[in-house]
């Protein structure tokens, strides 16, 4: 049993997910196969929701659909009271279909098209977070055309807070493409907001980066947002929603830093509850990774084992098109044997790679799996629930992987393998 991943039962050469044998799942649905443990997902969401709402009652977890938009995930979370953070027309539609009420949908994105803005306005989403002054103007103009009044507009503010994370995952620097500089938001609320007739500036939003585990970063973010709201109040803008973005990290390996959800809640909702704004606004948390990452594994079968100089390659049937994080960010994901024919103990280490014709199509190097591998064996790549299937593609004309769920020891196919 893995204490960090209580839904997984990692044996020497076998794996059970939510009580179901990986081997039987692979046989039933084929590989590569994403398997999501619905109970684990629900438990993580429940924990996030309860930690945040115990600090501040009016707190919405608006799950970041970009991290995982498979039907069972979004349906389960919607049923449990999650809102949705979306960045596209299809995202708005999916959230509605999943049963999220429009007021709990947040529309984000640094470069929204008019079509996307119109979809948000028509659906009556709770907040559209603008990332430029021009976009705010466009929202007002579109609302006028569509005859929509009372549309809530937020600003994603770039406070210039830098977070310790992979360069590809940081978004809060002053020169990043994200958000609007603080000074510009102030100017806008002074000069333009009073002239708006259809949209109303009602929100502040800040997302500093993803895979962040530093409580100070979140504390500063809270202070900055509250400070800015005070300044805007003096200009007649009433901030009713504070959106903390997402970004809370998870430890992909044992030694990774971890910020407990309770400490995150203290730094955000807890600090906010002690501010002058307490009771006057709703808080929104766009968590993705923390909620969904560890709920899911990717099962993949060994096609070939071969030596190349000192390297022993295990070539598997999942590729970078199925799971991109290692190739794109050099991200580390644990790999464990999910089933092996021989279960023969071995100290051998393997470089685990996929079938795509790119040398970056490698899931892990020098991995000691405890057993020796052979053709037909099964491996599991762990913690792939966030930015796994959602970032997959059909590169090399490979079909998308199948997605299955396990719940109460029963499995079901959520989507088949398809091109
Ligand atoms: N809100 C906004 C405005 C975002 O840009 C993101 C993620 C989130 C919320 C959710 O962040 P989370 O809680 O999941 O960290 N593909 C990368 C991650 C990209 C994150 C993009 N934005 C990865 O695989 O690590």
Question: How many structurally independent domains?
Answer: 2
What ranges have pLDDT less than 50 throughout 5 or more consecutive residues? none
The CATH superfamily of the largest domain is Alanine racemase
Radius of gyration: 23 Å
Percent of residues in beta strands? Answer: 25-35%
Q: Label the overall shape.
A: elongated
Structural class: alpha/beta
What share of residues is helical?
Answer: 25-40%
Report the CATH architecture of the largest domain: Alpha-Beta Barrel
CATH class of the largest domain: Alpha Beta
Tell me the span between the first and last alpha carbons: 36 Å
CATH-derived topology of the largest domain: TIM Barrel
Which hetero compounds are present in the coordinates?
ligand LLP
Name the average pLDDT: 96
Number of strands: 21
Largest sheet: 9 strands, mixed
Number of helices: 11
Question: What is the element layout, followed by pairings?
Answer:
Layout: E1 8-10, E2 15-17, E3 20-21, H1 22-29, E4 33-37, H2 38-55, E5 59-64, H3 71-79, E6 83-86, H4 89-98, E7 105-107, H5 114-123, E8 127-130, H6 133-146, E9 151-158, E10 180-181, H7 182-191, E11 199-205, H8 215-234, E12 241-243, H9 261-273, E13 282-285, H10 289-292, E14 296-308, E15 311-316, H11 325-329, E16 335-339, E17 349-353, E18 362-368, E19 378-381, E20 402-407, E21 410-415
């Amino acid at each position: 049993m893995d204490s960090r991943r209580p839904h997984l039962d990692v044996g020497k050469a076998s794996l059970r997910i939510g009580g179901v044998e990986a081997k039987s799942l692979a046989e039933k649905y084929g590989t590569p196969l994403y398997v999501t443990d619905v109970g684990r997902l629900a438990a993580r969401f429940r924990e996030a929701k309860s930690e945040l709402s115990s600090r501040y009652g009016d707190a919405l977890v608006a799950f970041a659909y970009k991290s995982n938009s498979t039907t069972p995930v979004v349906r389960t979370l919607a049923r449990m009271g999650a809102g949705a953070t979306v960045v596209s027309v299809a995202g708005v539609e999916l959230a509605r279909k999943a049963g999220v009420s429009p007021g709990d949908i947040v529309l984000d994105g640094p470069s929204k098209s008019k079509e996307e803005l119109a979809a948000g306005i028509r659906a009556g989403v709770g907040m559209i977070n603008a990332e430029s002054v021009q976009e705010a103007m466009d929202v007002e103009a579109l609302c006028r055309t569509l005859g929509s009044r009372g549309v809530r507009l937020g600003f994603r503010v770039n406070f210039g807070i830098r977070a310790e994370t992979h360069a590809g995952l940081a978004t809060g620097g002053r020169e990043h493409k994200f958000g609007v500089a603080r000074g510009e938001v102030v100017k806008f609320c002074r000069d333009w907001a009073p002239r708006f007739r259809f949209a109303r500036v009602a929100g502040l939003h800040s997302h500093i980066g993803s895979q962040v585990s530093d409580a100070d970063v979140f504390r500063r973010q809270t202070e900055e947002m509250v400070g800015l709201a005070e300044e805007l109040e003096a200009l007649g803008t009433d901030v009713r929603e504070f959106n903390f973005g997402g970004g809370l990290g998870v430890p992909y390996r044992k030694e990774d830093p971890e910020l407990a959800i309770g400490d995150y809640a203290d730094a955000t909702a807890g600090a906010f509850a002690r501010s002058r704004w307490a009771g006057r606004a709703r808080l929104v948390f766009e968590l993705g990774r923390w909620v969904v990452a560890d709920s899911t594994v990717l099962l993949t079968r060994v096609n070939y084992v071969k030596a190349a100089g000192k390297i022993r390659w295990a070539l598997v049937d999942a590729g970078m098109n199925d799971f991109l994080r290692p190739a794109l960010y050099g991200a580390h994901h644990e790999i464990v044997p999910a089933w092996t024919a021989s279960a023969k103990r071995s100290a051998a280490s393997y470089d685990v790679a996929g079938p795509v014709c790119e040398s970056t199509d490698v899931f892990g190097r020098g991995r000691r799996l405890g057993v020796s591998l052979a053709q037909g064996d099964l491996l599991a790549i762990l913690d792939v629930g966030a930015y796994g299937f959602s970032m997959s593609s059909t590169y090399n004309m490979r079909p998308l992987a199948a997605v299955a769920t396990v719940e109460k020891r029963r499995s079901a196919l959520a989507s088949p393998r398809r091109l």
